[in-house]
Amino acid sequence: MKPMFMVRLNAKPFYRENYDALVVRLSSLYDRVRLRGKAHGGDASAGGKQAAFVRQTTKYWVHADNITELKLIILKHLPVLVFNPNKQFDAQDSAITSIYFDNDDFQLYLGRLEKSEGAEAIRLRWYGGMSNNEIFVERKTHREDWTGEKSVKARFPLKEKYVNPFLRGEYTMEPAFQKMREAGKKSEKEIEQLEQLAQEVQYSMITRELKPVVRSFYNRTAFQLPGDARVRISLDTELSMIREDNYDGRERSGDNWRRMDIGIDYPFSQLPDSDICRFPYAVLEVKLQTQFGQEPPEWVTELIHSHLVEAVPKFSKFIHGVSTLLENRVQLLPFWLPQMDIDIRKPPTTSFGLGRPRDGGNTSIAAAPYGSNSSDSSKVGGSSRGSEPDIQVVIDQRSSDERAPLLGATGTNGNGPTLIEEGGIMKQLSPAGLRNLFHKSKSAFTRRPANYSSISPGGGQGNGTAKSVPEHPLPPGKRIALPVRVEPKVFFANERTFLSWLQFSVILGGLAVGLLNFGDQIGRISAAMFTFVSMSVMGYALYTFHWRADHIRRRDAGPYDDRFGPTALCTFLILVVLINFYLRLSHPKNPSNI
Q1: What are the tens digits of pLDDT across the range 266-307?
Q2: 413 in Cβ contact with 217 (< 8 Å)
Q3: Which site in 129, 248, 300, 566 is 20 to 30 Å from 37, CA atoms measured?
């Protein structure tokens, strides 16, 4: 009876009550009490005028049951960020839509998935409905630690009517940038950076033959103190990935830069299941300012270690959309994909959350019951269009307790596909994207027990007692890409090895020079042989150094040990010494006759 009851309950309007406007009002009340009626000192659009800043970013998944509770906890510390506080809240204000581009070889997808040095992601983004005429062209560039540079996200605005001509190379941004100069709102250096960005993006679009492949849609609730960028939290709900390609002979976007048969009408019920992946969880993103080395607030630390969230290192909407909707065209899959059907809900282990006050006290923080029901729809908060600068420097968070998610599809998300439970198996009634990707087995869909701990992609385990993750058999030819961080010390170790070989070859060369200048005929013969060995060692060490460095950058599994080099070196040295002994013993008195 329970599965049928849950299906009927999810269909009732009262079960899908939208608390967005209420959350915005509650946030405003908390903010007034926090400031004691005073006005904010910073920019109301939140974020100030920074042109570049450094942040640590971590991502978490939030079950639908915990969304509203999580919002209420956050707004007690940070107000909901509203771009235009003078405008009445509209549901479409929080909608964000992005069109991601790639080519037929999915070079951008593979680069972002493997975290290659210089890997790019290019997208076109707009805020609100389809009538918005301002489109942002954005490029994310990944930088490895060994380069000494930081990952950068940069963007520039473009009018919708110029998007197609810009992508075809028929329109340049000179007129728009000239207007920026005349307006005087940006410095000459900033405008030059935007000009370079526009030229590089347009060049990549044309030379790489990039086309729209995936659209991401979600409603974002942003939390931030106006003018204070130390802590910024965003919660993306109703996340959906939609196909934009024309690969299977069906025109979706056609020659346009986006498809026009859909808007922001979630859950996009007019689309077939093969065209859409409705993500079952909300995505929480925590950005902490690291420019001045501040410690994160205690409440943020408690939040990210609570039962309400599940850490998802390196999660990407673009990667997830391609790997689920276009799985037949890619061979490499993200590490979280095989774990999609494992329940992420956890029982509360600490007194963190919302609950009724204790008897005789005025405390409003208590442990929330496991599986408590909350609203799953979120459209509150202003768009973040005004809070993001044109160029951002991003530092990836790599804390020791960062864990990979054990993910599951166990709840309902707005008006999306319904999930029911059958004998411990979480089954999606309206599957999309993943239905043909994995051969599902009953053991792979069991709920996670109370003492189940997350397991990291590298095999490490988090707090608590860890149990093995059920294996999902992958389709033939598919591989899982695990996030691997290449430490700078790995490159330094390679350099030290090269210098050790070089030091040895220099010693041999010095010995050869001494024999050549101060020895007899036998000494000169030995000098020639030692010189040959020394030069060979130098050349081999240089080749091995570059070979290892190239494989380290590509994160190859190895092996990196060298069996040939030391063996050959020892062999040559033994031969040279034996030849020297032979010549010296065979001609002890007259070496000039050799």
Answers
A1: 889 899 999 999 999 999 999 887 555 557 788 888 898 898
A2: no
A3: 300
Other C-beta atoms lying within 10 Å of the C-beta of residue 390: 19
Q: Compute CA 158 distance to the chain's CA centroid, rounded to the nearest angstrom.
A: 25
316 has a pLDDT exceeding 70: yes
Average pLDDT over residues 77-96: 76
281 shares its domain with 256: yes
Strand partners, 56: 288, 395
Please indicate, yes or no, whether residues 462 and 531 belong to a single structural domain of this protein: no
Which residues lie closer than 8 Å to 251 by C-beta, 6 or more apart?
A: none
| 346 plus 327 within the same structural domain | yes
Residues 510 and 406 occupy one common structural domain:
no
How many secondary structure helices (H) and strands (E) does the chain include?
12, 15
Alpha-helical segments (H) within 326-480:
none
Distance (Å, whole) CA 74 – CA 54: 22
Q: Which residues are CB-contacts of 496 (< 8 A; sequence separation ≥ 6)?
A: none
Instruction: With beta carbons less than 8 A apart as the criterion, state whether 157 and 136 touch.
Output: yes
Nearest CA among 348, 373, 352, 372 for reference residue 364? 352
Answer whether residue 100 shows pLDDT above 50.
yes
Number of domains in the chain: 2
Q: Please, is 226 exposed, middle or buried when counting C-beta atoms within 10 Å of its C-beta (0-12, 13-18, 19+)?
A: buried
477 lies in the same domain as 525: no
Q: How confident is the model at residue 518 (pLDDT cuts 50, 70, 90)?
A: confident
Q: Count how many Cα atoms sit within 13 Å of the Cα of residue 35 in the half-sphere of its side chain.
A: 15
Catalytic residues: 317
Q: Which domain holds residue 517?
A: 488-593
Strand-pairing partners, residue 290, are none
Maximal C-alpha separation, the chain: 110
Domain boundary among 481, 498, 530: 481
> Please, which residues have CB within 8 angstroms of residue 331's CB and are 6 or more apart in sequence?
477, 478, 479
- The structure tokens 């799953």 sit at 376
The pLDDT assigned to 472 comes to 53
Residues 382 and 278 in one domain: yes
Phi, psi of 94 (to 5 degrees): -95, 0
Same domain, 412 and 560: no
Instruction: Give the pLDDT confidence of 45-79 residue by residue, as tens digits.
Output: 444 444 344 567 889 999 998 998 899 889 888 88
As given in the structure block, the two tokens for residue 545 are 């150094």
pLDDT of 257 higher than 90: yes
Query: What type of residue is 304?
Result: I
Distance between CA atoms of 120 and 108, rounded to whole angstroms? 6
Name which of 123, 94, 161, 142 is nearest 387 in CA terms: 94
> pLDDT at residue 511 above 90?
no
pTM across the whole model? 0.65
What's the CATH code of the domain at 99? Answer: 3.20.100.30
Residue 366 has what pLDDT? 37
